[in-house]
Amino acid sequence: MKLMTLFPRATPRIGAMAVTMLMMTTPTLAQSAAQATQESDWKVAAGLGVLRTPIFPGARKSEAFAAPYFSASYRDRFFVRGPAVGVNLLRFGEHDRFRLGVVARYTLEAEWDESDDRALRRLGRIDGGLDAGVFGSYRGESWFAELAATRGAVLRKEHGEKSTRGSGTAIQFGFGYTTRLATHLRWTTQASTQWSDATRARTYFGISDAQSLATGLRPHQPKAGITSYGITTTLDYAFARHWTLIGLVKFERLAGDAKSSPIVTANGKANQLSTGLFLGYRF
């Protein structure tokens, strides 16, 4: 999904990542904007932009990508956010502000290959997989929060070895605030963190004995714990009835055993910065 010849490693996985980042970090924008234009069972927003982000978690190198996004919901029950599909099973509280539901998501953005960067050389590759789980959320007029627990599997192939299954369980928590700075300008900021079990941490940040021999990096077997935390801020400028311009900045810092992985300490870095600019249309 990187942008044509300007960004040579063009694959749809990066587009999916952009979708997920945008829609998960601005959970109220697509719905409220669509509601402003029409009252119907369907609420849909779609667009295209450019996102600059690290090429894998812990990478020193960043690249720019063409980044489509898509969001849709039906009667506030069924929703799609990029590669994620979910259902609000329970809605309760004043104005149905509390939600409990299930979600499934294809983790295309989790893919990396040893040819992507020297930090990954002779480590093999990871192919995308499916995560599924449960979530609970709160959506107020200004404040929002979400807690999700998912479990999934990806295909991991170490250099010269047979493919194995990995991934494990992750718990993500985020809370944020959104407000209008002007009639057509909305600002949203969200803080978030992720906990990973040992299986998931080792899938993305571990160094096996075989990988250590192949790369010269020390073996590393991460334990369960917090693997990252960060903050995302967006500005949404509705310059016409259906059109909006969205700017995004996300800072994330790896933590715990993820931060101390040789993949990060040898040729990567713990601080991760992503920026994006998107043009969207509300149907």
UniProtKB/TrEMBL annotation:
Pfam families: MipA
Subcellular localization: Cell outer membrane
InterPro entries (alphabetical): MipA (IPR010583)
UniProt superkingdom: Bacteria
GO cellular component, one term: cell outer membrane
Annotated keywords: Cell outer membrane, Membrane, Signal
Stretch forming the signal peptide: 1-30
Major location (coarse): membrane
UniProt record similarity statement: Belongs to the MipA/OmpV family.
Name listed for the protein in its UniProt record: Outer membrane scaffolding protein for murein synthesis, MipA/OmpV family
Species whose genome carries this gene: Rhodanobacter glycinis
